[in-house]
Amino acid sequence: MLTTVVELNKRNQITLPEAAREALGVKPGDHIAIIIEGENIQLLPEPKVWSEYIYGLGKSMWETLGGSEQFLREERASW
Questions:
Q1: How far apart (Å, rounded) are the C-alpha atoms in residues 2 and 20?
Q2: Residue-wise pLDDT tens digits, 18-70
Q3: CA distances in angstroms from 59 to 14, 35, 55, 64, 74, listed in the order given
Q4: Which of 50, 61, 75, 79 has its CA 20 to 30 A from that of 1?
Q5: Is the pTM of this model over 0.70?
């Protein structure tokens, strides 16, 4: 793990250190996703294809609901 301190400039900007850019695999012009959870912040390279990035999210929710087939049966029955 590498820890470094950067300075916030007058425009509230920082320069991403070279080690961080290399770890993220980003270069000038790329986008970085910022995830904020309380006082914790994560930087991730923006996914090239968002649908692939979010694939599988909510899987546990679907399993709790009995899967997509069960959900569809219940929805169709409610019509």
A1: 9
A2: 999 999 999 999 999 999 999 999 999 988 888 888 888 878 877 787 877 88
A3: 36, 21, 9, 9, 18
A4: 50
A5: no
